[in-house]
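Case study.
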Amino acid sequence: MSNDVAERNTQHWAKTRSLTIFILTLWFFFGMVLPWFARELDEIVIFGWKLGYYFVVQGSLIAFVVMIWYQNWRQDQIDREFGVSDE
Amino acid sequence: MAVQDVPKGAKFTDKLGLVYGVYTIGFLVFFALMAYLETIGFEAKTIGILFLCFTIAIYAIIGYLSRTMQAEAYYVAGREVPALYNGMATAADWMSGASFVALAGGIYFGGYPYLGFVIGWTGGYVLVNSLMAPYLRKFGCYTVPDFIGTRYGGNIARLCAVIILVVASFTYVTAQINATGTIASRALGIPFEAGVWFGLLGILLCSMLGGMRGVTWTQVAQYIVLIIAYLVPVIWMSNKQNFGYIPHFNYGEAALRIQELEAQYGLTAAAEKIAGLSVLTTPHFDPQGGLDSWKFATLALCMMAGTASLPHILMRYFTTPTVTAARRSVGWSLFFIFLLYFTAPALATLTKLQLIDPNLATSIIGKSIADVQAIEWVKNWSAVGYLAVQDQNGDGILQLNEFFMRPDIVVLATPEIAGLPYVISGLVAAGGMAAAMSTADGLLLAIANALSHDLYYKIIDPKAETSKRLIVARVLLVVIGVAAALVASLKLTGILGAVAWAFCFACSGLFFPLVLGVWWKRANTAGAIAGMVFGFGAGTWYLYMIYNGLMEPVWAIDHLRFGIIGMPVSLVAMVVVSLLTPAPSAEVQDMVDRTRIPSGDTILAASH
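After joint prediction, the assembly is written out as follows.
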């Protein structure tokens, strides 16, 4: 691998890694933190939903779907920026 | 029939929308025909049989048309499955008989602790997308052990991965074949053991001739049946009972009402237990914080990491044309899975409310025992022993703790509780069968492919010709299917226990070797072997000790979440051993670099 290519790959990977860490932080928040505090969140009622219950049966699930679609959209941008997209 | 083009590959994938559109309309027409037959007086049983036989015949035809003798088509469906369809196939692969039949019932009876499964089985896809799928696709492997074997090198690492894969997947597949047996025996009126063999026959018809290609196109068809079968009854019931057209966004108040009623009735255990049946004792949703939160989080974490390590799921992402498409198809997968998973809690809540809220016409709690025992659906399910109404305190009134039900009939019984026509029950049976068959297909194929490709071809006989390899693959498929059916007919464990074990086995042994293979260049062969052996070993040892009562669970880590023991051991062993032994060669490190970018050739040659 020439140096230019190696340099490009390093930068591409740095950005990919930051994006992944960001997504995994969100994942931890919606998948672990919110369900952990379900008892406390249940004190709050919005639109007829107890909030702790809402996140465990629906809110976090929606967040997971949105997260993946956002991540892929951003990753596509990063891949194109460095000219390494395969599509 | 349009699916005739399947074996021609490229041509077929151009008009998938048309093929599956026609198929979906055909299925709905069939459904309407069955509804008509019911109104002119056909027996419920005939309709159930027609539903099951019609759908299985369609899957078998697709399986036959997808037959192939090429390795690339057999192992990875020719890598030409578009993201959207791979998403549907993965969703069917993923949602087992347990998800379809037992999930809503589990939520109904299990409350907050059980919902850890719902979060775990959806959140796991974030890990699949972030850490695994695109990189494994770039690698260009046929199986998961293929990745381990190439990244770390050597037959020992490959063999360890094969063993973990077989243990995890086999545990899972027996539960699935058990579910096909249960559904087939009930719908066709045959003994359970005969139902198991009938189910296996259907499964092999889908997978044997076409391998991954056959399984892919039948799984898409199965997803369409199972999601229609899950959503139609819920929406129909919701309308009939005035909960709104789409109940998903406003059943929060129904849950509040249930909590009110629970406080009013009191949740007490039955005076006299009935084996195999449950009364409602767990609150609908009442997290206690502390230990409760810990149990939730550990269960969810095991299920998430297990999702990201189960080979039958990961190998679905080997079938897309590009790395970008592999990522996109993870997005579609979770979307299609989400449709069912966010419906299940709604179903559980509305069904429970219908039974216990005295303001609703369908309620039975607080009514006289004689009246309840005369209700048609209570009679039907009591006759087969799945439900019981007993006046244990002798006051002639049905109390909450006098209504016994098998948790996994909630989905199957809901249409009858809500007074929907029988044709809906036939539809639900077909959906449950599709869910169990599609998962069993994926699992059997994962096992047979690992044994034929990694054990036979890569380790035992590297010179074997393609035709011979593919014959070995098929023989293994039949042998493993028969073995799984034999084990299933013994009914050793409950379905849910077996499923949770499979996830824990997979994440104990495979999660860190797979993740670090891409994310940590320094990871080497010795480290990976240590990670697999110690992680899988520690998890299995812990399960053995707990399950046989040789040890008290530590920190409430029971047999459903033993991955919490296996995973940290795997991580520490892998990191320590890697650091104590020399770094991988420059060649291997360069391979990892190439894995990380989507463009360029796959690491392994197209046909290997």
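Observations recorded in class. Strands of chain B lie at 387-389, 403-405. The first helix of chain B runs from residue 10 to 14. We will return to this complex in the next lecture.
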